[in-house]
UniProtKB/TrEMBL annotation:
It comes from the Bacteria. The chain crosses the membrane at residues 6-27, 39-66, 78-96, 117-142, 148-168, 175-195, 229-248, 260-284, 316-341, 362-382, 394-413, 420-438, 444-464. This is Sodium:solute symporter family protein. CDD domains: SLC5sbd_CHT (cd11474). It is found in: Membrane. It comes from Undibacterium umbellatum. Its main location: membrane. PROSITE patterns: NA_SOLUT_SYMP_3. The keyword Transmembrane helix applies.
Amino acid sequence: MNTLIWFVILYWVISVGIGLYAARYVNNSKDFAVAGRSLPMYVVTATVFATWFGSETVLGISSTFVKEGLKGVVADPFGSSMCLVLVGLFFARPLYRMNLLTIGDYYRNKFGRTAEVLVTLCIVVSYLGWVAAQIKALGLVFTVVSGGYISMNAGMMIGAGSVLIYTLMGGMWSVAITDFLQMIIIVIGMLYIGWEVSSMVGGAQVVVEHAANAGKLDFWPSPTPRESLWFFAAWITMMLGSIPQQDVFQRVASSKNEKIAGNASVLGGVLYFCFAFIPMFLAYSATLIDPKMVESLIDKDPQLILPTLIMTKVPMLAQVMFFGALLSAIKSCASATLLAPSVTFSENILKPFFPKQSDKQFLFMMRAVVLVFTVIITLFAMNTNSSIYKMVENAYKVTLVSAFVPLAFGLYWKPATTQGGLASIILGIVSWVSMEVFAPDGLWPPQLVGVLMSLTGMIAGSLLPQIVRKKLVV
């Protein structure tokens, strides 16, 4: 135990030091927000992968798979990895050519100031659950490796504070460089611990066959209207709802050119999909290695199954490799998701109120917002009981119903107008919230109703005024 704690401390100090070193590249707001649009292919790919390979991948997806099987993780990794592929194929290049600082700038240029404010607020709110999940996971790691000596709340404060330090100083440069190193640790650590656990159960095939016999590999839902609709809604929540997010856009905008922006997103998505199955394999292996432990935790807190297995059943080197990979996954995701909403809130909400400020003052504003957002998120994480997986999945419902349709139709549908964009945003949000309040568990998933109404608002809001004007002219 002492060895593991000292490893965690050493790793933490080194990673924070690297992040602070990267701050030397930050000379202006563009460096802070998008790393000066200068990152090469291998760094962009690494930061795409490392940002998405967070606590929900290691702890959330794995525990959900043990309980519900593949059909329970349709949102992530199936939907989330497909999101990155779609971004690379259809959104990265046109957005990169616009030379924007944030995704909110796109909505202002295409649909006006009101749309910019509405979508930016939705994006910022959507990050509450996602970032809180990473902070909560940091608290969980510190509690586990300290044997309970460090409480969940204390662990969350320590984790949030240390991630804040280098994100506050180095912005996207610190995030990108630490992500690159953390991707290496994640890949090596996950492969090693996968090999170690596989040898304990007699090979990967034994685990796969056991999962198949238990029905855990059944992917498609029951052929009923409700099951099919909810399955489809879960899939598109992260597949489409993640596309209009600032963290995704930052990786696109930070690339050296548009080719890198597109290719790195696709490659990062493919890598994420492949490696996301390793934590599922590890967690399900626990049902063979220590079934009593799994039975005791499955309903109490399934997120503890995987770390408990590692702490009690594998050698110290494997523990070090696992928690190194886990900390890398959480820290890379936490830093990115702290930076993204802070930058877009500064650029698209606050900046217009201070039109005469210098770039240096704007850089200070972004750093101040990062600090405030971190405090708010940490308090939120300390006062919520939601699972890590659900917190991340729910985060994307907001942007799915408000931001996806205006982004996609604004880029690829010529008749799209300001009226259509505003109608899409407002109808999507209002219908989704109404469904969440009055029929949260009905036949139709609230977020699916929201995105359909958003689509209706875009088409009707764009075409009807044009039809009316033509009739008046005639």
